[in-house]
Amino acid sequence: MLWKKDVLFCDISPTTYAISEKKEILKRHIKNLTGKEKFCHEYRSDKLPNLLSNYSSGLIKTGKGIDIRLQENKAENIAIASASMNGMVIHPGETFSFWKAVGKTTKRRGYKDGRVIENNRLKPGIGGGLCNLANTIHLLILHSPMTVTEFHNHSDALAPDHGKRIPFSTGTSVSYNNVDYRFRNDTDQDVQLLLWCQDRKLYGELRSEREYPWRYDLVEEDHHFRKEGEKYYRVSRIYRRTIDRKTGDVLKKELVLDNHSEVMFDYSLIPEDQIRQE
């Protein structure tokens, strides 16, 4: 086999990819043990009184090119993972880690083949679909004063939009355990994460001891699809606004994602009026 200098070790073969993945997992374990982050670990069965943010979404997507078996498996995977963090309390100064809460996704723990993205391709994989769960958490956190400390994104154009476009309806990437989603509570009170599945929907709430003086919303600007070479991409800019709860004044507007997502669904389903020629 000829060696190409510009080819990464992990891209040589499935074996080298697996070796690289195990190396990164080990590095993250060592970093977790030797680092200074204080991770949350407490759970409460009773809810904190103030609702900070909430979100719900359907677990099963249908349509052209969507494997319903993988969708059903995804729903089961999300139900298992949600139960592992439902009721988790994040005290001031503590960090939430998706993978420290969920743990490794294995068949023995009940996880099944769901849809995963590897090298920009959709494929079956054990525990697939948990990016949907991570994304729900990210939406809750973006509507709160929590500090996101680790975020990775993949395409948010995995399937056609149904109804009104919701910024960040998908797009958060997690992969055990080196591609994590983390946030830190830099406020002066406890917050609590609630996640559960019911009637084929995922529900999420972020709660606190008392109301904060701010509220938050997401604004997407210049949303469109664009053809680049032989592929289509969703392009937009997503901002988070911090709003004074009493006056309604916008105190801050910050860019949270300069979106450039490869379309992973059938191109014929892209709305023609949203395609921009450039």
- Biggest sheet: strands side by side, in what order? 1-3-9-10-2
> Mean pLDDT across all residues, rounded?
89
What class do helices, strands and sheet pairing give? alpha+beta
Measured by DSSP, the beta-strand proportion falls in 25-35%
Fraction of residues in helix: 10-25%
Which series of helices and strands comes N to C? HEEHEEHEEHEEEEEEEE
Largest sheet: 5 strands, antiparallel
Helix count from the secondary structure assignment: 4
* Number of E-type strands: 14
Low-pLDDT parts are none
* Ends distance: 41 Å
Coarse morphology: globular
Radius of gyration based on Cα positions:
20 Å
Descriptive notes:
The protein has 278 residues and is an alpha+beta fold. It has a domain of 192 residues. 20% of the residues lie in helices and 35% in strands. The strands form 4 sheets. The chain has a 5-stranded antiparallel β-sheet. It has a 4-stranded mixed β-sheet with strand order 13-12-11-14, with no helix packed on it. Strand 5 and strand 6 form a beta hairpin. The radius of gyration is 20 Å and the shape is globular. It starts with 13 loop residues before the first helix and ends with a strand. The relative contact order is 0.16.
Keywords summarizing the entry:
20% helix, alpha+beta, 4 helices, single chain
Provide a short characterization of the protein structure.
This protein is of the alpha+beta class and 278 residues long. It has helices spanning 14-34, 68-83, 98-102, 130-142, and strands at 42-43, 50-58, 88-90, 95-97, 113-118, 121-126, 147-150, 182-184, 191-198, 201-208, 214-228, 231-244, 250-262, 275-276. Strands 1-3-9-10-2 form a five-stranded antiparallel sheet. A four-stranded mixed sheet has the order 13-12-11-14, with no helix packed on it. Strands 4-8-7 form a three-stranded antiparallel sheet.
